[in-house]
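User: Please predict structures.

Assistant: First:
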Amino acid sequence: MKLFLVGSRRENMKQVIAGDRIEEETETVSEPVNERSFLTFFEKVKSWAWIIARATLLIGLSFVILYPIILKLSIAFKDKADLYDTTVMYIPRNITLENFKLVIETMDYFKVLWNSFVLSGSTMLLTTFACALVGYGFARFSFRGRNILFALVIFTILVPPQTLMVPTYLQYRSFDVLGLIGLFNGGEGIRLIGTYWPFIISSATGVGLKAGLFIFIFRQFFRGIPQELEDAALVDGAGVFRIFFNIMLPNAIPAVITVMLFSFVWQYNDIYFTTLYLDNPNVISGKLLSAGATIGHKLSSMTGGGDAVDPSYLSMLVNTSVLLAIVPLITLYMFVQRHFVESVERTGIVG
C-alpha cells in the first residue's frame, strides 16, 4: 500500500514538473512571437504614416502651384454677372467664351502668337548650335587663356543684363563691325532697332539670352563623353567638325533638348530684351504689357466712349489674356515632359 502511494506521488510530481516545463517553453516561445508581431505592426504603422505625410505634402505643394492656374481658368470662363454674385466662388454659374473671343480679337492673338513662335524658335535653334559649338571647344581643346575665357562666360551669368542696357542699345542702334559698314554708309552703322536682327545676331554669336548658362551645360556634358570616341574618329581620318556633328552632337541629345526648351521658354517670356530691341513688340510678352490699356480702349469704344470701364471686368479680361499667353507653354510641356525630365536628369542640372 505504501509502495503504491509513493509511486503515485512520483508520477504526480513528474506530471507537475513536465507541466511546468511545457508552460515555461510556451512562455519562451510566445515572447518572441509577440515581439515579432509588435514589430510588424509598428513597421506597418510607420509605413502608412510616411505614405500619409508624403501624400499630404505632395497635395499641398501641388495645390500651391496649381492654384493660380485653377483661379485663372475659373475667372476666364465667368460671365460678367458672376463677378457680383457672392454665391459664385470657383465654379462659374454662367459659363461663357465671350471673354476669350474679346481678348483674341483685341490682341490679334493668333498673329501675335505666330510672331512669338517664329522669334523664339529661331533664337532657340541659333542659340543651341552656337552654345554647343562653344561648349565643345571649352571641353576638348586646350589653348592659352581657356580658363580665363571660361571664367568670363560664367561671369556673364552673374552680371544682370540691365547694367549693360545703354551699350547694348547703342551697339544695335548703329551696328557696325570694326568700322567696315561705316566705310560704305557715310560713317554710320546700320540701325537694327525695331527688327529681329539683334536677337538673331546675339543668338548666332553665343551671347544671347542665358547663353552663358547654356555654354556651361554643354561643356560639362561634353567633358563626360569618353575621349576614346574622338580618338577612334581621328584615327579613321575624321576632322574636328565631322567629329562634332557625327559623334559628339548625337551623344549630347539630352543636353540639346534641355537647352532648346530653356531657350524657347525664356525667349517666349522675355520682356527686357523684347522692349529694348523692338519699338512696337508684336509678340506675346510685349502685348501683355499693354493688355490692360488695349482692352480698356476696346471696351470704351464698344460703349461709345461715354461710360467708364468696369475695373473688375477689365481685370477679368486681362486675366484671360494672361491665360491665353501661358496655354501654349503648358501644351508644349505636356508633349515634351518625359524628354525634358530625362534630359535634366542626365545633364545633372540641380537646385
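Second:
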Amino acid sequence: MTNLSEQKIIVCCDSRESLDDAVAHGARIAGIFGKELCLFRPVVSGEKKEKRDAQEKLEKAIRNLRDRGSDLPVSSLTLSGNLIDSIERLAEDYDGIMVILNTENLKEKLITLRQSSIPFLFVNGRMDKYLRYDRIMLPADDSKATKNMALWASYFGRFNRADTSVFAAEEKSAAHGDRISTNLKSIQELHANLKLKIDVRHTGKSSSRLYSEAVNESLNGKFNLLIMSNRPVNGIDDLLSFPEAKMIGQAQNLPVLVVNGNRDMYILCD
C-alpha cells in the first residue's frame, strides 16, 4: 500500500434501501482524499445468480454516480461470503483504507470491525450538513487508540481543511491522568507539525462517560464527524456487548468513524 492510486475507499453496498446514502458519503470521502471509490457487495450464498444480481446493482450505482456528474475513479467488487469473511482481503488484497457502511445490522458489522485493520465509517442518511466533513469531534482518553484516532482527524485537517475539537477526559487516578496528558501532547505535536489548528476542551468527564458526552456535544455544536475507537474486549460479557452501538445510535444522522484500537492501522498515503 505505497502508491496513492492503489488505495481505495470501500463502500459496503449491502442494503438497497440505503445504497445511495452510503455511496454519497463514499464519493465525498474519496474526493477529499483523492482515492478510488470501490463499491463492494458481499455475496453470502456464493451462488452465481446472487453474484450476477449484486454486480448489476453495483453497475447501476456507478451509472447513477456518472449521471450526477461524478468523475471519480470508481470500481466494483463482489466477494463470496459475508463481510467478516472479506474484511482482511479488502485491506490486504484490494488496498482498502476505510469501509463506509450504513447502520443496519450494526452488531454484525461491529463484530467484523474487531477483526479489521482499517476504520469503519457508519453513516445514516445523506443530509448536506453531514457531507461536509469539516468539523471533527475527537474524544481523547487514556487509550492507545487515541493516537490513531488523532491521525485520522489530521487527515481531514490536511485534505479538507477541517477544524478539530479535542474533547479530553479527566481521571482522578494519576496513572490514567498521565496517559491522557501524554495523548494530548502527542495530538498537539502532530497538529502543530502539520500546521493544523485544534481546540482542546477539558471536559471534567471520566473516560467511561466521555463518548456519550462527545456525541451530545457533536449534535449540539453542529459537528459533522465523530471519531471514536471500539472498546477493549475484556471477557465474555464484552464479546456480547457493544457500547459502540449505543454511541452510533445516539449519534442519529451524524457520521461516526470507528477505529479498531486492538489492531495496527494502515496509513493513508499522500
